């Protein structure tokens, strides 16, 4: 299913550049293009060099929420907008009073347009995050010649994904940096480690698995493979590389001992995501509502202003729990180091 035991994760928001994906592929990894936060036109341009290279690759899409926010979350969102006003004023930014309406393509991350693109111009593999593609869509993608993967964070999610007919699963532990792929309410405390989560999903479904979350060394990667995965997905391990599109502020923060812990927070986007703990995380994690993408739109001007000002205390510094192992330098060196360690 996966042509390499190492997968270069799709990191949306500009981090996974085409250059990163191509360099990872050339070094022996399976590369993903990140479809999140891109229009169909931007996604087509992003993957054109990968198509031209002729190798195997994947594309990742965000599955949008259907329907409006529940009234309680909508009220919490309004309170949160008011809470953000002090930070916005300090940055010289303005918190938008409203989010794009549900029918606006930005609210669905251009889902319909990108699905149409990838049905008309198929890619080798398509993965879904934040939810499941309907079984009928999975069947259409298969007919077009595309392998389909679902991102899951628990055994119940894995079982639900298997019912849609997908070919494989990316099993993401909460140690992962950036957004959680979760789409079902948590049931219990969750798996203590990525090894135990992979083993639990392996026992529940017969699909090929890739393990993800906090994999910072080849030794951890070997253990995840031994637990039942066919491959491991690297995200934070590639953040500081030369080809990564992450901001220099973000790359530098990952190497700065001033940042000593990570936390899962909804403060930046309204969806749980693991980041380095900074002032924004400390101030707003307790009150940030469960409202994605509305919080993402609300904080976007603040994040842009913070980046322009070089203010790391206000930025979303995504990082998995193994962030201290992330190395600078070429992507190829990181990939080849992992492959050698396997």
UniProtKB/TrEMBL annotation:
Q: Identify the keywords attached in UniProt to this record, alphabetized.
A: Detoxification, Flavoprotein, FMN, Monooxygenase, Oxidoreductase
Q: Which reaction does it catalyse?
A: 3 propionate 3-nitronate + 3 O2 + H2O = 3 3-oxopropanoate + 2 nitrate + nitrite + H2O2 + 3 H(+)
What Gene3D superfamilies does this protein's entry cite? Aldolase class I
Q: Which domain of life is it from?
A: Bacteria
Q: Entry's InterPro entries?
A: Aldolase_TIM (IPR013785), NMO (IPR004136)
Recorded GO terms, molecular function? monooxygenase activity
Q: Which Pfam families match?
A: NMO
SUPFAM superfamilies linked: Inosine monophosphate dehydrogenase (IMPDH) (SSF51412)
- Parts of the chain that traverse the membrane: none
What cofactors are annotated for this protein?
FMN
Q: Which family does it belong to?
A: Belongs to the nitronate monooxygenase family. NMO class I subfamily.
The protein here is known as Propionate 3-nitronate monooxygenase
């Amino acid at each position: 299913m996966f042509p390499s035991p190492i997968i270069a994760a799709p990191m949306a928001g500009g981090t996974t550049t085409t250059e990163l994906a191509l360099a990872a592929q050339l070094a022996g990894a399976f590369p993903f293009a990140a479809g999140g936060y891109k229009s169909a036109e931007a996604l087509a341009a992003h993957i054109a060099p990968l198509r031209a290279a002729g190798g195997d690759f994947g594309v990742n899409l965000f599955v949008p929420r259907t329907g409006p926010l529940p009234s309680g979350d909508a009220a919490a969102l309004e309170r949160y907008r008011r809470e953000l006003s002090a930070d916005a004023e300090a940055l010289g930014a303005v918190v938008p009073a409203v989010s794009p309406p549900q029918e606006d393509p930005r609210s669905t991350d251009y889902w319909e347009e990108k699905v149409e693109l990838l049905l008309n111009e198929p890619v080798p593999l398509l993965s879904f995050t934040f939810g499941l593609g309907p079984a009928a869509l999975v069947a259409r993608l298969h007919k077009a010649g595309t392998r389909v993967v679902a991102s899951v964070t628990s055994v119940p999610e894995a079982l639900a994904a298997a019912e849609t007919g997908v070919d494989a699963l990316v099993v993401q532990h909460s140690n992962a940096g950036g957004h959680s792929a979760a789409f079902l309410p948590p049931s219990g405390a969750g798996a203590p480690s990525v090894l135990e989560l992979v083993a639990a999903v392996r026992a529940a479904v017969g699909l090929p698995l890739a393990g993800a979350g906090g994999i910072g060394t080849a030794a951890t990667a070997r253990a995840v493979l031994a637990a039942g995965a066919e491959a491991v997905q690297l995200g934070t391990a590639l953040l500081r590389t030369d080809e990564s599109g992450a901001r220099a502020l973000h790359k530098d923060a990952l190497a700065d001992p001033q940042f000593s812990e990570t936390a899962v927070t909804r403060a930046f986007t309204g969806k749980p995501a693991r980041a380095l703990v900074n002032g924004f995380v400390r101030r707003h994690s307790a009150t940030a509502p469960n409202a994605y993408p509305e919080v993402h739109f609300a904080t976007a001007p603040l994040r842009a202003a913070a980046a322009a000002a070089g203010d790391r205390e206000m930025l979303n510094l995504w990082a998995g729990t193994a962030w201290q192992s992330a190395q600078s330098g070429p992507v190829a060196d990181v990939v080849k180091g992992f492959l050698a360690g396997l």
